Amino acid sequence: MRDKVARALLSRLILSLAAGEILALALSQYLQIPHAKAMVATAILAIVALASFVLSLRPLTELFLNLSTALKAGNKPSDLLLKELGELGNALAVAWERWEKTFAELKEERVLLTAILERMAEGVIAADEHGNVLLINSAAAQMFRLPLDWSNRRVTELALPFGLLELVQRTMKLGTPQFGEVQLLHPEERFLDAYATPLIADGKRIGVLLVARDLTELKRLERIRRDFVANVSHELRTPIATLRSLTEALLIGGKDDPEVRDKFLQAIADEAERMSKLLENLLELARLEAGRREWRWQNVSASDCVAQVVERFKPFAERKGLKLTVRTEPDLTVRTDPEALAQILSNLLDNAVKYTERGEIAVVAERLETADGVWVAVHVRDTGIGIPPEHLPRIFERFYRVDKARSRQQGGFGLGLSIAKHLAESLGGKITVQSEVGKGSIFTVWLPLSKLE
Ligand code: ADP
Questions:
Q1: Ligand 1 pocket: which of 407, 409, 443 to mutate (most atoms <8 Å of CB)?
Q2: Å from CA of 413 to ligand 1 middle
Q3: What is the model's pTM?
Q4: Cis peptide, bond prior to residue 187, ω within 30 of zero
């Protein structure tokens, strides 16, 4: 631009001088004025012409100044300015519009990409070919407790688990995707499935991408399933082995001795009974977990339901010399499935009797208000063996028993509490436990108190 202006000035100057020389010649010729005087007059004329030209250039310089200020500040030049710039202004307006459109598209793409990355359960980390971090999504930041400010950091400075760093470094070195499973021990045990792959753009390697998936929950469920199959097989193996040996003993001669025969037949009946109880429990659990149990919701008097179940357990308690008492507040009406409530209370009372050798079992039903609602709470309190604190978090798991031998001897499978918990939760409630070894336990069933319909 500056060249153009200089050229225009020069050409104006030459033209003025040439015109001045011609003018001076004409003046000296026709007006009889000495040539030198004519030259001076012409020079003055030329200077006046040039000055007027330079003055006419000033607004243009100002326009360029305004334009460059606007562009430097990243602002669109005003419509007036573009108009004043004429053809150049038109071209600038078209270019600006195109640039704005491209910028908006890029921004939209970036927003979408960020939203996707932030929603992903997988941890994603990208780095350039020199190992400088380009991106970390929140799943990765949470998974590896990474600093929030990761710009200007290298992947090696992120304190990533060693197994993952190794994947990244192998990918950078070999230029091929690398897969691996990584087990973390701190702060808690976790299993990750991870892969690192080169980032390619326009056929060129520009960095590395690391993706890690947390498999801990999946592994836990897998373990529960495996344990379940193993537990069921184990529970069935013992009675089946007993049945087989009893029948064999009968076949090889036991049947001929009436006393042995009766004893063995009774044992067979007991084992068969035990197996059918186990199957019943398993079917009940399966129905609950598959959501296939049929519910009969009614307005139920909790006091009546508690009294009926307690009555059923009186003979068992008496047989062990235990006192069984019941105290209920009047008018405890809940909307619930009475059969399910009775089953929960039976399982709790069954345990209370099984795991108490002396003392008392007290059942109390009352209305309680807590921070999370209004409830009918039924407490089953015993003075039994109690549960060590380290076992408390697991006693509601399927097949979990504190003392396997003792539970088995009492005819338990370790399923009663998990069924009770499932039922209580399906009824909109919960079960809690407090226990002290040697002193006893209190199991509480919480049922939400609803308005009568
Ligand atoms: P089980 O058929 O073995 O009784 P549960 O699921 O009902 O199975 O209970 C799981 C375990 O919790 C029991 O094996 C026992 O160790 C413990 N437990 C449950 N209730 C009591 C209780 N009232 N007193 C002491 N221990 C209990």
A1: 407
A2: 9
A3: 0.60
A4: yes
In sequence order, the 6+-apart residues with CB closer than 8 A to the CB of 447 are: 302, 334, 336, 341, 375, 376, 377, 378, 424, 427, 428, 429
Nearest atom, ligand 1, residue 412 CA: 2
Ligand 1 centre to CA of 447 (Å) is 21
Give distance in angstroms: CA of 395 to centre of ligand 1: 7
Report pLDDT digits (tens) over 51-105.
666 656 556 778 888 888 888 888 888 888 888 878 888 888 888 889 889 999 9
Closest CA to 410 of 291, 277, 318, 224: 277
Per-residue model confidence as pLDDT tens digits over 359-371:
999 999 999 998 8
Residue identified by tokens 């001795």 is 257
User: Cβ(448)–Cβ(426) under 8 Å?
Assistant: no
Question: 287-315 b/e with 16+ CB inside 10 Å = b?
Answer: ebeeeebeeeeeebbbbebbeebbeebee
Distance (Å, whole) CA 204 – CA 355? 71
